[in-house]
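Box 3.1. Reading complex inputs
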Amino acid sequence: MSRYFTDEHEWIDVEGEIATVGITDYAQEQLGDIVFVELPAEGTSFEKGDDAAVVESVKAASDVYAPISGEVIETNGALEDEPALVNSDAEEDGWFFKLRIADAGELEGLMNEAAYKKFVASL
Amino acid sequence: MSGNDDIAHIEEELPLQALPLDGWHRARGARMVGFAGYHMPIQYEGIMAEHGWTREHAGLFDVSHMGQLSFSGEGVDDALELLLPSDIRGLKPFRQRYSMLLDEEGGILDDLMVSRLGGGAFDGADIYMVVNGATKYDDMGWMIEHLPDEVVMNHMDEQALLALQGPEAGEALATLIPETADLIFMQSGLFTWRGVPLWISRSGYTGEDGFEISVPAAEATLLADALCALPQVKPVGLGARDSLRLEAGLPLYGHDLTPAVSAIGADLGFAIQKRRREEGGFIGHARVMKELADGPGSKRVGLRIEGRLPAREGATIHAGSARVGEVTSGGFAPTVGAPIAMGWVSLPHSAIGTALEIEVRGKRIAAEVAPMPFVPHRYRRKA
C-alpha cells in the first residue's frame, strides 16, 4: 500500500484499484474543532478537483476536493456520530471516503510523505 | 466597480496593527487572525475547550480593539441624548447601559455600552463609552459631527480592555482586588491594583457573570499575567467569544445588526427607556415610534436547527416556497451541543415555535424560531 498527499492537505492510500481519502493531521489542526462532515453519496463519480465533501468546524465550512477521479464506493459512517474523529485520528480512523480509481496516472503528480512534510514546513 | 468597492478594497489593503497584548498572545500559542484592522487571537488550545472553560470557570478575553471613548463638558448629557436613544440624564454615577447609535432613518450604526464615570476616573470625564472595533472611527466621525463644541470627546487609545468572563470570574478577580466583589451587573468602579488605576464594570458579552477592565496599555501584560496565574483563569480567543455570545442571544454588530435594520426589529427596545420614547429628541426616533405602533417589517430571531449541519451567515430562510429571511450568524453551539443561528425573518414568520427551513448548500434543513438566550444568562444582579 502506498500513501500519497496533495497540496490541498488530503492523503490517499492506494491498494490495488481502491483509494482511501482523508485530510491530513496538519489540515485538521488548521480547521480546529470539527463538528460535522458532509460526505458524498456512494456511487457518485468525481473528476479530479470536484467538490467531494464539506468539513464544518466551529468557525467555518471548508470544501474537500476529490484528489483524483473515481467513483465513491464507501464512506466513513463513523464520522456521522463522531465528527471529532477527524481531529483525534485524521490520518487513520478519520478517513472520509473510498474511491474506485478511474485513472491511476493521476497519482503520479502527487507527493509522498517526505515531500508533503517538506511542503508543510514551508507554509 | 462602484466607489464603495474601491473603499472596501483600500481598507483591506491597510496593514494590520498590533494591540498591546500582541506578543503576550503569541507567547501563549495563540493563532492570530486579522479582525477589525488588528492582529487578534482567534484561539489558543481550541474553540470548544475555551468555550467550555468560560462556561465553567473564567476566560480572559483581549478586547482592546474596541473603541474606548470619554466625554466631558457643558451639556454632555443633552448632547448624548441627541445621539443615543437611551436615558443618559437618568444614568447614575458608576452605572452602565447598553445603547446604540441610530442614523436618521433609524438604522443601527453601532451598538455600545455607555456609563457615567465617577471617582475622578479618566481625568474626571463625565461619560465613558465602549464601541465596536470595526466601527469605532466611523462612530467618532458621526458623533463629532453631531456634538456641540462644548462637549469634548476623547479616544482613549492608550487604554487596553480585558474581559474576564465566567462563573468563577468574581472569585478570581476578588483575589487581586477584593473590593470588586461588591459590584453587581452593569455597575462600575474605579479601583487601584499595584498602583495601576483600573476602571472595572461588571458586564460582558458571553451571558456569564464577569467584568470588563480598562487598563493602561503599558500595564496590560502585567494584569493579564496576574489573572492567568489564577487557577480559575485561562486566555480565550475570539472564536469562543463568538460562540458564547451567540448562545447568549447577543447580537454581533456588522452581522446581526447593520444600518439596514432597526432597533425595534432587532428586539433592542429595552435600550430605549420610556421617557425617551415619549419625548423623542434623538436621531432615529420616528422609526422607533412607527415600529412600536405598527410593528417592524422583520425581526431578529433565534433559530434551533434540526440535525448537526450548521447554518451560517448568509444562508436563506424559507417558509414553503417563500423566502422569508436570512441567517446573520450561525454555527455549532458547544454548550447546547447542536447548531443554532440568529437571523432576520419577516414579521409573520417570527413567532416562537414557527417552523421554517434554511437552505445550506442546496439542501433544506428544518429549523424552528426559538427563544433567546439559548443558554440562560447568569449575571450577578444582587450583591
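In summary: Residues 1-10 of chain B have pLDDT under 50 and may be disordered.
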